[in-house]
Amino acid sequence: MRRLHPGSAPSRRAFLAGAAALGAAAALPEWPAAASTRARGDHRGFRVSLSVSPVTEAVLASLSLTDGRHTAGTVRDVQRLFRRHGATEVFVRVATRENARDRDAEYGFARAIERARLAAHLGVPLNPELGLWAVYGDITHQPPPDFSDYPAIRQPGPWLALTLPQMEDALRQYGALVARQILLTGVHVNYWDLGNEVEWGVAGVAIRSFNRDGYSPPDAVDPAIGQMSAVQLLSMSEAGRIAWLRQHLWPYVGRLLAAVADGVRSVDRAAQFSTHLASIAVQDAALHTAFWASMHQAGYHPAQFGTSLYPTNGDPGDRRAVFLGIASALRQRFGKRLFFAEFAYPSGPMGPPFPWNNAQPGYPQTPDGQFRYLRDLVAMSAASGAVAGIRPWAPDYCLASGGWEPMSLLTEDGAAKPALDAIQQALHPRIQP
Q1: What's the whole-model pTM score?
Q2: Among residues 45, 115, 332, 338, which is most buried (max CB within 10 A)?
């Protein structure tokens, strides 16, 4: 996920062709497959990661949130509100620094411990994402970790001067240390997410992506990495892009993720893992299939795969069909399901810094269109058997100043939009909003 605030990095839309103008699509009836799923109540353990976010505290400093029946003025109350609308877990994004504030958002490890205690108190699983960066990173940039708050991790030199085995050793130690501290809260972790949108790199071992500020190449790992940029990759054919990544990047990404997993598993022997891709410029399952084959070859074997899915962010075509097809192909090839680790559909026009207005056919960017898209996506995903669940991204980030309010499930006044009930309506059609 790109940052939750304005930044210097351009959006995917600036690089991808085929972005459609916002249309005046008429409201259409529910898709037959979605209606059939709703009638059966078929959800088969579908994960609903409707969770407080890195900006919850910032939002609550300005207003309370309400669904018309209950009002939430604390972080705990917000998660309770989400549980009433189907949430099954708490999510937290974890930086390596103890405190890692990035404008409205806080990703520090201290915040992760707070979220772990919240999940333990509510009796629900925690899904921590170990980002493996000092403060924050995603497909736009993947900066190195900073282990200065973990004095037990001793590096023989600056991170980007380390060899791959030296990085693996540090990440293995980090995985064990962070897992031990999180589990000491008494929380149950269902999945340990490793990295954030990692197909172009992780933990500083990454290409020059959209945001070049402060970039340094990991030449001690492979000098070719620093010579490649996002613009160059996107100018290649898909086959050429995959071939370069398989040769010069993905083997290292797999080994680094496997090292973290080894560290976590030394503390939590039953640990299960997941990692998600940004899926930029993806139109079929080829890149996902190649990426996960490379991860398996490198020794990283997650229990679930993951992807970001922002249907209006410039990619051409029916994004729901594309990603359900990817999920089906991965299930057939690897026997594992795909988790929609970041999802949002806007209830109105999006402006800078997120001009994501490629409205999908039949789903205008209105509160009703947002509700129906999420409802139908969840129903069809559950029916497919190939999708593990969904995480609406930053559902509480409704501050108009942040630019994310159309994507939020609440208005800028803190009132619930219809979409807050969409997942419940998809999975439990007898429950009325």
Answers
A1: 0.91
A2: 338
